[in-house]
Amino acid sequence: MPRPTGRAGHWKESLPPERAYKRRAGSATPTLEQDRAAGGRDRRAVALGDGRYARASIALKLYRRTRRIRAYLRWSQDGSTRERYVCEVDRATRGENLAEAWRQARGMGLVSDRPLPADSRASSTSVRAVMRANRGKDTGPELALRKLLYRRGLRYRVDTRPIPEIRRRADLVFSGPRVAVFVDGCFWHGCPEHYRAATRNAEFWQDKIEGNKNRDVETTEALRSAGWAVIRVWEHEAPESAAELIAHEVQARQAEARSKPTGVDAPARGDGH
């Protein structure tokens, strides 16, 4: 008797591809991956009662017998791990499946937004999560990019001035080939795709973001005038694509320097993006 197919819980004809449920080497850290899929760290809250919350994660499990992927919500409570079945997922990639599971968990009332602190300037928990995730150095996108570049054999300095006389710091600096890399957070640098203006203290934040954007332009122009290649990467960009772009620029400048006679400076090149 043939096995039924095409309905949730029944048999499928073939196993889903590994990219639909397994984490890839060199991908974003587990925490960043979950934050992105849920729409922000503070959107991963499970209410425990008495004003307490736990931060949950979604686990994807492949059931080989039925050839289906199931999503489970996990969180820690009173020293033990709790787990709740959410749904079956059937998207093409792990990221899409995680996002779908978070949507389902929210619709079922299993997770909610963690309440904003009374002194928060953010207009929502999602805005606050973005603001917190993109402060300072060693952010998730930076760490993912650095890991990929290091695996390629590239070496760099972190969070330093490309030119000591210019009081601007880059996230990654390749001193020899003179390549400066900035990993720009979508909120703090006004990403045209993902920036959402705050509604609380709107004028303050508008001035803050516009000031950051103007400073970015000034920094890029100053470094390029001094012969540096400047590459700007948005935090939402795939780290693999960014690493490919950076490696190409660094290696091209290194090759150009080797081909020049001793004592001749290589001309400024590359606009980055």
TrEMBL record:
Region annotation (Disordered) ranges: 1-42, 252-273
Top-rank taxon: Bacteria
Basic and acidic residues biased stretches: 10-20, 33-42
Organism of this sequence: Streptomyces werraensis
Xref: Pfam families: Vsr
Annotated InterPro entries: DNA_mismatch_endonuc_vsr, Restrct_endonuc-II-like
Signal peptide residues on this chain, from the entry's feature table: none
Protein name: Very short patch repair endonuclease
Family, similarity comment: Belongs to the Vsr family.
Keywords attached to this entry: DNA damage, DNA repair, Endonuclease, Hydrolase, Nuclease
GO MF terms held by the record: endonuclease activity
SUPFAM superfamilies linked to this entry: Restriction endonuclease-like
